[in-house]
Amino acid sequence: MFLVTLGHDQRNRRTQYDFQHSGQTISKYFNLVLKAILRIAHEYVGRRDDTTPTRIRGDPRFFPYFK
Q: Which ranges carry the DUF8040 domain (predicted)?
């Protein structure tokens, strides 16, 4: 339910219809999954590395997009 709701930019009412559950159930489990993902996000999402790889920097086909 969580991935369908996010992936298709659905509202609670549409998810209720698709999965045949009440709005309370949809909200409860959506929020549980969201909180769980936020707790583990720091393990999987790191800070962005601002350096451009040498392969891209040295190739004129790619570098204009990474200036």
A: 1-38
pLDDT digits (tens, 9 = 90+) for 32-42: 999 999 999 98
Total structural domains within the chain: 1
Structure tokens at 16: 């209720």
The domain of 15 spans: 1-67
CB 1 within 8 A of CB 30: yes
To 5 degrees, how large is the angle CA 38–CA 35–CA 27? 140
How far does CA 60 lie from the centroid of its chain? Answer: 32
Task: For 18-29, write each residue's pLDDT tens digit.
Answer: 999 999 999 999
Whole-angstrom distance, CA of residue 66 vs CA of residue 32: 39
